[in-house]
């Protein structure tokens, strides 16, 4: 079994000899919310957007990569919902890319046809 997100963050913070009060001071996150993160009581944080932001700030403060911590958090959420690996939504960027390509091809073809008809 992998280490939980709260235990991981607490362990990493303690290895660096950083107190929770120091994290609160540097990140401006309430100490109650930091306790909630370390004990995995995310329901005590005002929404998942805040939780992700707090996790990023916490990770940066203690010298971890925020992206890695957020990946661990997404894995944690997936396990809570019963999914081992949370399904990633298809990025809208790829769909937008192909839509732009099609529009450019269509527009370019239209311009070419009109120019050849002169």
Instruction: Give the low-confidence spans.
Output: none
Number of helices: 6
Mean pLDDT: 88
Distance between the termini: 71 Å
Estimate the helix proportion, in percent: 55-70%
Helix-strand topology string = HHHHHH
CATH topology of the largest domain: 434 Repressor (Amino-terminal Domain)
Report the CATH superfamily of the largest domain.
Answer: lambda repressor-like DNA-binding domains
Strand content: under 5%
| Global shape | elongated
| Count of DSSP strands | 0
Major β-sheet annotation: none
Describe the secondary-structure layout.
Elements (H helix, E strand, L loop, with lengths): L4 H11 L4 H8 L3 H8 L9 H15 L3 H15 L11 H25 L2
Short description:
The protein is mainly α and 118 residues long. The chain contains six helices and no strands.
Describe what you observe in this structure.
It is a single chain. By secondary structure, this protein is an all-alpha fold. It has 2 domains: 5-80, lambda repressor-like DNA-binding domains (434 Repressor (Amino-terminal Domain), Orthogonal Bundle), CATH 1.10.260.40; 90-118. It contains 6 helices and no strands. The protein has helices spanning 5-15, 20-27, 31-38, 48-62, 66-80, 92-116. Helix 4 packs across helix 5 (66-80).
């Amino acid at each position: 079994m992998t280490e939980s997100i709260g235990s991981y963050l607490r362990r990493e913070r303690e290895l660096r000899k950083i107190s929770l009060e120091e994290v609160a001071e540097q990140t401006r996150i309430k100490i109650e919310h930091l306790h909630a993160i370390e004990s995995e009581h995310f329901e005590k944080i005002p929404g998942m957007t805040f939780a992700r932001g707090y996790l990023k700030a916490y990770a940066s403060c203690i010298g971890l990569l925020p992206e890695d911590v957020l990946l661990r958090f997404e894995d944690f959420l997936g396990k809570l919902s019963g999914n081992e690996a949370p399904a990633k939504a298809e990025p809208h960027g790829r769909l937008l890319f192909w839509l732009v390509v099609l529009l450019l091809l269509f527009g370019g073809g239209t311009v070419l046809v009109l120019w050849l008809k002169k």
